[in-house]
Prior knowledge:
The protein has 388 residues and is mostly helical. 71% of the residues lie in helices and 0% in strands. It folds into 2 domains: 3-218, Serine Threonine Protein Phosphatase 5, Tetratricopeptide repeat (Alpha Horseshoe); 275-387, Tetratricopeptide repeat domain (Serine Threonine Protein Phosphatase 5, Tetratricopeptide repeat, Alpha Horseshoe).
Amino acid sequence: MKRLLFIGVLMIGFSANAQMTQVPIDSSYSLLNNPYIQLEATQAINDMYNFRFERSMSHFRYIRNQYGWHPLPYFLMGLNYWWRIMPNFNEEKYDEEFFAYMDTSLMLSERLYQDLNTVEGAFFLSVTYAFQGRLLSERHEWTKAALASKNALKYLEESRGNGDLSPELLIGDALFNFFAEWVPENYPFLKPVVALFPDGDKELGIQQLKVVARNAFYTRTEAQYYLMWISYYEEKDMATAMQVAEYLHQTFPRNAYFHRFYTRLLYQTGNYDLATKESRSILNRLDSAYEGYEYNSGRYAAFFLGHISEIKHQYEDAKKYFKLAMEFGEAIDATDKGYYIFSVLHLGRIAQKEGEVDIARTYFRDVKKLTKRKHSANIEARERLQEL
């Protein structure tokens, strides 16, 4: 199973809803639109998205000290660790902290749901279970992931439909509408599960995401992230994906995930000068140990630089960067991924152009070993071996 199997459980999105106040707690009181809390949480959330994690955590701890009865500060601290994981899901060193904070969020969300505010409690239960389910699926904890996903959808059903109360809540409806159609289209064996829930509407979901991206305070960035993801992977709308990716990178220039996504789009749309600049920036930040810049981002950037150098017939640079991409791939056990495989293939192409027949044969044979027979790289490698 791939990670996208459980993206359907994220039909509720991010909810940094700063739902806290110092007035007496009342089950009828809504905490979503408190402007004082918005002001208090703004810098912390911006720091989190800009990968200044420790500074962000300091703000979140302050919020926890004031409003420890509410799940929000614990959810935010868990989300802080989620974004540390985002650049490379193979990294497990943050798992313990992530699950600890999310478990506390669940406990307090259950109390909120039972005693204080049913809609708000259900919302936090759904979003917390969803994030847990996503990471559990990455860790191949299928039984636990399925249970978390089931709970996420259960509480989502109770909290959805309240988007008119706040644009923050509308993101739940938006992602539900989109993924309720997307999941069975991409994973037919999940149709019986999705059939238990109301019908979705992908187009409506996208329009709702745009509303959230324009009007929400806390969930704006997550809505923009999903718009970028959907535009690129589902709608094949490169112009919209690029527009959002550029905005996110400019707004949060230290965010390694946004930086990598933006650079990838520059490369794929043929903007090689900017792609070169940003790829070198990624490698420089990796060398300087910037938070979130690690070998996974490095293999992207190195491959882009290698291919762009090859296109410009700068073969020595191309070979250097392709070999660097392979080193990064080997370091994170990603030798079965596309950038590693095509780095080997491109090195074979260059060797063939330069008349290094034995070296070329070695690279093409390696490609055959790394891929299945129907893989495009495998087909090309076999054809080139026949030519040699």
